[in-house]
Amino acid sequence: MNDFEFFCKHNLKWLYILWLPTVEVIKRNEHSDFARYPEAWAHYDPDENKIRIVKGCDCRLLRVHEYGHWLVYRVYLWFDALWEFPWWGLGIRSLCLGHRKGGEA
């Protein structure tokens, strides 16, 4: 696999994040994140692209706040892909390392 193929494969795993996250209203004891953060009313989970809201705390402003976390995460991934493109996508890594692979001397 060349550098460009690796770059594409690496970024394809994040395609699911392009769609709006699903919202799930649950009881506080149904998810471990709320046990760790008892003051939290909601949580955005980027691994599942899901917003979990504690039952009784659901409101528009809270949903807007959690969608903000999703948007910030999307922007971060975009900048990460932009930053990695010259290294992997254009093959600068191969120019720097030459024939060496895996960091071996």
Give a summary of the structure in a few sentences:
With 105 residues, this protein is an alpha+beta fold.
Biggest β-sheet, characterized?
Answer: 3 strands, mixed
Quick check: average pLDDT? 84
Strands of the largest sheet, in order across it? 1-3-2
Shape: elongated
Beta-strand residue percentage:
5-15%
Order of helices and strands: HEHEEHH
Helix coverage percent: 40-55%
Question: Gyration radius, to the nearest Å?
Answer: 19 Å
Please give the number of β-strands: 3
Total helical segments: 4
* Number of domains as seen in the coordinates: 1
Quickly give the structural class. Answer: alpha+beta
Point out poorly predicted stretches.
Answer: none
Task: Give the termini distance in whole angstroms.
Answer: 21 Å
Structure description:
This protein has 105 residues and is an alpha+beta fold. The longest helix is centred in the C-terminal third of the chain and has 30 residues, at 60-89. It has helices at 3-12, 32-36, 60-89, 92-97; strands spanning 22-26, 42-45, 50-54. Strands 1-3-2 form a three-stranded mixed β-sheet, covered by helices on one side. Helix 1 (3-12) packs antiparallel against helix 3 (60-89). It has one domain (3-94). The mean pLDDT is 84. It has four helices and three strands; from the N terminus they run αβαββαα. The two termini are 21 Å apart.
